[in-house]
Write a structure and sequence with these properties.
about 250 residues, alpha+beta, four-stranded antiparallel beta sheet, three-stranded mixed beta sheet, binds calcium ion
Length: about 250
């Protein structure tokens, strides 16, 4: 009985070896007869310039999405530390850079990855671009200085409100005084008081730097609205409008 079992095992092993040998010979014959089988019949052609892709430089991310909802994929390229590009698909194998028509953010942003998705669930695709931020205080001051890169004063106010518990008031006032840009000092003081976020001492430090001239609260909007002597600002954005915006 025991010998019979050993014989069975031996027979099965021989059968396995025979099978393996058979398939090895079959594969060898197959590849000798058809040497190109297994290599995909796909080739590539350099069409970057012809397609209208012109930017050369570092980028940490590129993402396909249908920006205009025409069913053709468009391409967002973050272009690290330089202005991004949004290549609109012309549906003929070429693309058009439309970034200046649709975007006015910080052209020196430390951009990384990006992704398209319908974040607000309204049926069209939206884009999220991840940006490295050194610290929140500098970022807010950058926004107050160059509001055109972040959508205007209201957007900066919104960002401040969302991160108000993370903002170090002494540090942001220190930064503002060191930066020494009159419009920034005025807008920061107004922002702190509007949200009742600033300690009186910090606002006093800012007010001591004020000069007689006036600045616009939002440099992107027309020069209109009442003058606020306390911060030497012309209020071309309504404070209540901003408050309702940030609380929505
Ligand atoms: Ca498209
Ligand atoms: Ca959407």
């Amino acid at each position: 009985m025991e010998n019979s079992t050993k014989d069975n095992v031996r027979v099965k092993c021989l059968y396995c070896r025979a099978n393996i040998s058979f398939y090895a010979i079959l594969l060898f014959y197959f590849f000798v007869t058809y040497p190109n089988v297994g290599l995909a019949d796909i080739q590539f052609k350099e069409v970057t310039t012809d397609a209208g892709i012109h930017h050369a430089g570092t980028s940490f991310g590129a993402s396909w999405g249908d920006f205009n909802g025409d069913g053709w994929p468009d391409l967002w390229v973050g272009n690290h530390n330089s202005k991004p590009t949004l290549y609109l698909n012309r549906q003929d194998g070429t693309f058009e850079d439309t970034i200046d028509q649709v975007w006015s953010g910080n052209p020196r942003a430390d951009t990384h990855g990006a992704a398209w998705a319908d974040f607000d669930n309204d049926g069209d695709q939206d884009l999220v671009e991840l940006v490295d931020v050194s610290d929140i205080e500098r970022t807010i001051l950058d926004g107050l200085k160059q509001s055109e890169h972040c959508g205007g004063f209201s957007e900066v106010a919104k960002a401040f409100w969302m991160r108000r518990e993370d903002v170090d008031l002494t540090r942001i006032v220190d930064y503002a005084l060191r930066l020494n840009v009159g419009a920034v000092i005025r807008r920061l003081g107004y922002l702190l008081e509007m949200f009742e976020a600033g300690a009186p001492h910090e606002c006093d430090r800012l007010r001591k730097r004020l000069t007689a001239s006036y600045a616009l609260l939002d440099p992107l909007l027309p020069a209109e609205g009442k003058y606020l002597a306390r911060w030497r600002l012309r209020l071309n954005v309504d404070a209540e409008e901003i408050k309702s915006l940030v609380s929505s």
